[in-house]
Amino acid sequence: MRQPKIIVVGGGLAGLMATIRVAEAGVPVDLFSIVPVKRSHSVCAQGGINAAKNQKGEGDTTAKHFDDTIYGGDFLANQPLVKRMCEAAPGIIDLLDRMGVMFNRTPEGLLDYRRFGGTLYHRTAFAGATTGQQLLYALDEQVRRHESEGKVKKYEGYTFLSAVIDHAGVCRGICAMDLRSTEVRTFAADAVIFCTGGIGAIFGRSTNSVVCTGSAQSALFQQGVDYANGEFIQVHPTAIPGEDKLRLMSESARGEGGRVWVPRNPRDSRPGKSIPDSERFYFLEEWYPKYGNLVPRDIATRAIHRIVYQDKLGLNGQAAVYLDVTHIPRETLDRKLEGILEIYQKFLGVDPREEPMKVFPAMHYTMGGIWVNGEDQATSIPGIYAAGECEYQYHGANRLGANSLVSCIFGGGIAGPAAAKYAKNLEKGAESTESSVFDRERKRQEEANQALISQDGSENIMAIWRELGETMTEHVTVTRVNKNLEGAYNKLLELQQRYRKVNLSDRSKWSNQTLNFARELGNMLLLARVITMGAHARNESRGAHYKPDFPNRDDANWLKTTRAKWANGDIQLTYEAVDISMIAPRPRRYDVAK
Amino acid sequence: MAEKQVIVKVKRQVSQQGAPYWEEFALNWRPSMNVIICLRDIAENPVTRDGKKTTPVSYDSNCLEEVCGSCAMLINGKARMACSALVDHLEQPIRLEPFSKFPVVRDLAVDRQFMFDSLRRVKAWIPIDGSYDLGEGPRMAPETQEKAYKLSTCISCGSCLEVCPQVTGTGPRDFIGAAIISQVRLFNMHPTGAMHAGERLQALMAPGGVQDCANAQNCVKACPKQIPLTESIADVNRQTWKQALLGWLIG
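The joint structure predicted for all components is written out below.
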């Protein structure tokens, strides 16, 4: 009787949820993560997690959550699974509650809910202003319990290099590098679930953590795992500028009443607090009377860019606007926003309770990702599943705040059982695959490492990375112009050429972070091309994808999913119809109720 | 006019077996610089102050905003996170050293597996029946949630173990440390977790448990999340006394 085995790559919310479900299905699971899973990027999520529990007497329903999500995504998402996600969300909150997440409570001892972007209902459950941390820790604790019962084996400090795919095109395991010993090893499994998160490093600076490179997605893409809607990149409107990171200032600040404004007079150099109300331009409130400061992120980001770059009203001529919470009662700030206010204070030395915060938009999230089949998170290669931010399924052209945490847990919760079922039903599992298949892949990866270590060129990986980030941030984020996208694409090709001549400043075989980053950079350059190519091809504006030369949404020609394939050593774009069977597309506006 | 410089001295080590050695770097000052930015500068141009080519410094980092616990190290002798250590608030030359209580992997990166193993020892989880739908969880008073939430912000950075005089090793009988004791308090506060408090307390009454705390109180001063660690230790101490008494009564 064969014993199936599953591998999960990535230990954030999606990966941990998948791991729990696989363990509960009685299948042994190996969990791979670059960092100890408790340190995954999910820990940075701040504001909250959505569910239509309707505990504020507003008449909220999962149907309304579904409509808000599809509308917020500008009708690009395939609808059936999004509906299931919204219907499952209340149960997910209940589960997290039972697991011990310390959500904020009402006087009756029930969970409290706040309002978030793109909706008029209070449906975001939260734990202070560090919700992602508490959710991640709860799942981390559950996995630790399964680990103590022998059901989960962790490989922390390993990075994914490539999938092991047999002659029939079926995945039979992975090839990974032990980051300490730099040893390359293969691991057999009947199915692999990828939960490898976001891609912020491709844009240089972002709200993402160091490990969010998209390297795994890119490696898989080069092995035939299709990538969808790559051009849909979310730029979060409010982040703290910084040289090393653009630190997120959560939407929940606005959810609790924070207001975005600039002085009406661009030459007003008084400290923010001293400028009287009548001399402040609360531009989101004036332009979008119904949703105000809680318009969806793409709307808010474009508004801030317009204020700074077009209307020239940025603070002191800089790329910054005010996010003001000084008027909110201290007690509310302490109970609901302390975590994020602490970040501002620690990194800038200014107390946001006294002075309005200075913020600016930052690359934050990718709606696009690995293509999955709309049913059970399976990708275009048998045996490979994907869940979480690294796949494209739930958010269409723009993601609503507090929907990511739901989609990661929901998607991981589907992928786990689906992969376990697939693994159990296989006639022949990975253990029947010839060892030569594994050896071949291992050799290929060892050679790639060796090539990088022995390369003797003149290029510096940090310099190439810097140029990659600058190019992508300038031309492939908020405002897209075809001429600039062409220039950016050519720049990426040039960077790929220069990458062939990098000279690593560290050739050691122990804990070589430079080698690892060099591997990631190669993959980042390719994924950047997929994103840029998709953006160039899509001649319309939809959700986060904005082209001033094509300023309207064009459903007749562009209501379709971009599906990128790797063929004959190059990127090929194909398109698929979107399942809009449940909600008919309508114009997307936030100045009035929808 | 010479550009303002930042001088950074790093205690390096090629691996756990290697002997430690110091290297000094001169970096260009910029506003709002933190220690992570200094380490990235070194990675971009790994040349010592006296012009010797060297390798980038190894260190752990991820979130860069003090919520993941990765970048803990000794900065001018103080246990703290590198990401929030602003250069302008540090005396120069800035001395960077790895935590001394954990095995060194390379340079500033250490192995803190001991902390995760300790969480297993004390069963730091709520033992739910399963992830299938069983309806809502138990109600909880807001005041309880506020206390418990604070405890739940522990990022397992290891600072409290680093500064504790009772932490002398990372073996199964060594002192488990303030962070873990505080986690036991957290799980014992939750209505479901409280049903299994005995198990957790038993683990803390074993060798390396709460009785090893000698009340130096360094931990609470070092915690980057300002968790009330000494309050947790006192609370858990009371709980273990009760547990010992009850155990005798039942047993």
